[in-house]
Amino acid sequence: MPERKVLKIENLNKIYVKNQTEKVEAIKNLNLEVNEGEIFGLLGPNGAGKSTFINILAGLVIKTSGSVNVWGFDLDINPRQVRASIGIVPQELNLDPFFSPKKLLELQAGMYGVKKKDRITDTILSMVSLDKQAESYSRGLSGGMKRRLMIAKALVHKPPIIILDEPTAGVDVELRKNLWDNIKLLNKNGVTIILTTHYLNEAEEMCDRIAIINKGQLVALDSTENLIKKIKYKIVKLKLNKKIDIKDNSLDSLKVLSNNNQLITLSYEKEKLTIGEIIQYLNKYEVKIIDMITDDGNLEDVFVSLINR
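^ that's the sequence the OP posted. Answer follows.
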């Protein structure tokens, strides 16, 4: 059975006009699809067009051209249904300090036209671990609780898609883990997650597929695993029983990154050389390898190489 596309973007463009004459292309001919039930990463440097893209989906920015289809609804024909299909969690904490979490969710549900009999306020509060703080003032909540309350607000109308815009920006490691546990639970319950983040290790751990955009254009779209496979170079760090002198290109593609006493760091192209060939080459120096660490690279290496390209 083919995967259902919950979001389909075709030839999307957004052009801003500055000073009545200067045109700025925030999004250029963007094409991408998001599958139902996946955690989809949207990455890019500042100014890449991520916020413009999210604001188009939210109805806050009008696209210049192209088509946007969300949960089977066309943005041009059914804008209200598109907005109803998405819950957006912005970067900024936007909460009334004198309202309780329960009251805030009830108000949010009312704004979306959710009838009282159809509201799931208590279920949502339990899902984001705020059931014990349901009647407390929002101003008294910790930073982590406020973040979870922002996620809860986005869930009141039961949208099938949640967009998280830098959800863990500026939060500590423990809080970040807690937030991700909540997000994984939402995904397990069938919610499709679209995530923007500056923490590439997060995207690598959390996302099934990743789109990388730069200057409004799509530069990569693939599974996280396949993107990492695109890294050409591998690094090996060796601790030897004595110092040896190795030159660059002693073997095909071999580079000496550092050589300090008995510690040596080498890089090589995975398609041209193997770690076995390097060890065999070292044998001629009559050295003993005390310790060895290899690094296959990560999403950050992919990101940097694609953006620089």
